Amino acid sequence: MGRPARRPDLRHPGTPRGHPWGHPSLRRGTRQLVGRTLTVIAVVAGLLLAISVYRAHTGGPASAATPHYHSVQAALRASLDRQHLSYQWVACTAMHRSFRGREISRCNVDFGDPHVVPYCAVLVGGALITDRENPALNCGSRVKRDEQGVNTAVAL
């Protein structure tokens, strides 16, 4: 038996035998390509960051999509005060549902002696709409269970 047949060299022609990265001119081109790609990525990331900071400070679409829980909470407090209702605290959070294109907020109102009542509220044109005033404001089954006293959680 003789020597086994030599495998053909599949590297780029002119590649020094045993050199793992191929011809030196190819290595230089690869480094330049990687460098250019990283530069483009850095420039695009910088532009996106600058745009988002600009929109956040000028009230553009990025800040318009931010939920206004404090506004809903303040409007609900004012509504309860107008009705001369006594409450301990009001806490609001997002429901990830919408009504007339506005995000619905779920608000828990503590009327004392642990009596927490859930409200679903939304501000439309500056006016507060709650599920008590408009049943079309869909709060979902979880709120209905909470009103019946099942699985009531107290928010602090």
Question: Could you walk me through the main structural features you see in this protein, from its secondary elements to its overall organization?
Answer:
With 156 residues, the chain is an alpha+beta fold. The protein folds into 2 domains: 39 residues; 79 residues, no CATH class. Helix content is 38%, strand content 21%. The chain contains 4 helices and 4 strands; from the N terminus they run H-H-H-E-E-E-E-H. It has a 4-stranded antiparallel beta sheet. The radius of gyration is 32 Å and the shape is elongated. The chain starts with 23 loop residues before the first helix and ends in a 9-residue tail after the last helix. 11% of the residues are buried.
Strand count, sense and closure of the main sheet?
A: 4 strands, antiparallel
Low-confidence stretches: 60-67, 150-156
Q: Which strand-content bin applies to the residues? A: 15-25%
Distance between the termini: 86 Å
Spell the H/E element sequence: HHHEEEEH
> What coarse outline follows from CA principal-axis ratios?
elongated
Number of strands: 4
H/I helix tally:
4
Helix percentage: 25-40%
**Number of individual domains:** 2
Task: Write down the overall mean pLDDT.
Answer: 75
Largest sheet, order of strands side by side?
Answer: 1-2-3-4
